[in-house]
Design brief:
Layout (H helix, E strand, L loop, with lengths): L2 E5 L2 E5 L4 H12 L4 E4 L10 H14 L7 E7 L6 H9 L3 E6 L19 H10 L3 E3 L13 H16 L5 E3 L5 H9 L4 E5 L1 H5 L23 H12 L5 E3 L8 H4 L14 H11 L6 H13 L7 E10 L4 E3 L2 E3 L7 E6 L4
Parallel strand pairs: 2-3, 3-4, 4-5, 5-6, 6-7, 7-8, 8-9
Antiparallel strand pairs: 1-10, 10-13, 11-12
C-alpha cells in the first residue's frame, strides 16, 4: 500500500506551551490533528476552569486562519484542588479532564500532587460526574530507580486507585513498559492508555549510543527493547484501550542541550507520518486509523471526526531544526529519513 486515507485523527496528549512557544508549535499539530487534549502544566499551571477557558482563547487566537483545530482543555491537579472545581469542569463544554502530576515528576510539575490520598474527595466527585483522570504514571521516590518508576506506580498507586474508585475513567498517559501494556490491556473498560511515537520507535539505547542524545530524553524515560516490543504488540492487537497521544513537548535547543537539559520530545512536526511508519513496519497499517482516529474519541465520548487525511509512502528527511520562539527546536528524528508523509494537498 503506497497511499493510506484515514479519518483525521486526534492527539489525546499534547503540550502547546504559551506565548511565543504556542505561536511556534500550534500549526504543526493543527495541520495533522482535528482535536487535541491540551496539557495544563504551564508556569503557572492551569488549575481552574476560568484559567482553562482563557488558555483556550489564546490557543484559538494563535491558530492560523486556514486551519481547523479544537483544543480540549484540562485542569492541573494540586493538593488544594477542591471538589467544587470538578462540578465546574463537568458543566463547562470546553474542559474535559483533570491531569495528575506527581510533584517533581516532569516539566512544571512542582505544584503537582504530593500524595494522592489528599485527592480522594476530588476523585470521588470525578467518578460521580464522569470526569476523566489523566495520569503521569510515575512515582518520584528517590529510592526507586528511574527505569522502574512506572512499574512501581502501577503497583503502589494505580492498582489501589482503580479498586477504590471503580467508576472513575482513567488514562495512563505515555505508557512505556510491558507491565503497563499488560495492566491496561487486562484492566476494566474504564482504563485506557496513550502511546507516543518515541516509545514505539526507540529503546533506551537511543539516549546514549554515539554520545548523549538529549533530544531523545523524555519522561517517562525510554526503556529496554522488550518494553518497546510490548508496546508494538499492544497497538498491533487493535485493542480500543490504546490510542494516540504524542506527548509532543517543545523545548528550545538551548534548553535541551544543557547541563540540566529539559525532558520532552518534539514530535508534533511529523507525528502522524512517524506513526504510519511504525504501523507499516509492524505489519498492521490497517490498525492505524482505529488507534489514531477512533479509540480515543470513543473513550472520551467525542463524536468521531468526519474529514480525512491521506498519507503517502514516500521517503523524506526530517529537518535538522525548526524555528521556535525566537530560537530553534530539534524535532523528533531530526535529519533522519521518514518513509511516510502527509499528502501535500491535505
Amino acid at each position: 500500500m503506497d497511499k493510506l486515507t484515514i479519518t483525521r485523527p486526534d492527539d489525546l496528549h499534547l503540550h502547546l506551551r504559551d506565548g511565543a512557544g504556542l505561536a511556534s508549535a500550534l500549526a504543526d499539530s493543527a495541520r495533522q490533528f482535528a482535536r487535541a487534549i491540551i496539557m495544563p502544566n504551564l508556569a503557572p499551571p492551569v488549575v481552574s476552569v476560568a484559567q482553562a477557558c482563557a488558555y483556550r482563547k489564546r490557543i484559538l487566537a494563535a491558530l492560523p486562519p486556514e486551519l481547523n483545530f479544537l483544543p480540549l482543555m484540562t485542569l492541573y491537579l494540586t493538593d488544594n484542588t477542591a471538589p467544587d472545581e470538578v462540578q465546574r469542569v463537568a458543566n463547562c463544554e470546553h474542559t474535559y479532564a483533570f491531569k495528575y502530576y506527581p510533584a517533581g515528576a516532569t516539566t512544571h510539575s512542582e505544584q503537582g500532587v504530593s500524595a494522592i490520598e489528599k485527592l480522594y474527595p476530588v476523585l470521588e466527585k470525578m467518578a460521580a460526574l464522569d470526569v476523566p483522570l489523566l495520569l503521569h504514571g510515575e512515582v518520584t521516590d528517590t529510592q526507586v530507580d528511574i527505569f522502574d518508576r512506572e512499574e512501581v506506580f502501577i503497583e503502589k498507586i494505580l492498582t489501589p486507585l482503580i479498586e477504590r474508585f471503580p467508576g472513575l475513567r482513567v488514562v495512563l498517559e505515555h505508557i512505556t513498559t510491558e507491565q503497563a501494556a499488560a495492566f491496561v490491556g487486562q484492566g476494566p473498560a474504564t482504563l485506557a492508555a496513550t502511546i507516543t511515537p518515541q516509545h514505539l520507535m526507540l529503546n533506551r539505547n537511543a539516549l546514549f549510543v554515539g554520545g548523549l542524545r538529549p533530544h531523545n530524553y523524555c519522561l517517562p524515560v525510554l526503556k529496554r527493547e522488550r518494553h518497546r516490543q510490548a508496546l508494538i504488540a499492544a497497538v498491533r492487537s487493535g485493542s480500543p484501550k490504546f490510542f494516540l497521544g504524542t506527548d509532543s513537548a517543545p523545548h528550545e535547543k538551548v534548553a535541551k542541550e544543557n547541563a540540566c537539559g529539559c525532558a520532552g520530545v518534539y514530535s508534533a512536526h511529523s507525528a502522524l507520518a512517524h506513526y504510519a511508519q511504525i504501523f507499516a513496519q509492524a505489519g498492521c497499517l490497517e490498525r492505524l486509523e482505529p488507534f489514531a482516529s477512533f479509540h480515543g474519541a470513543d473513550f472520551y465520548g467525542l463524536p468521531r471526526n468526519t474529514d480525512k487525511v491521506s498519507l503517502l509512502r514516500e521517503d523524506w528527511s526530517v529537518p535538522a531544526s525548526l524555528p521556535f520562539a525566537g530560537g530553534s527546536i530539534i524535532p523528533f528524528q531530526a535529519g533522519e529519513v521518514c518513509q511516510w508523509k502527509i499528502a501535500d494537498d491535505e
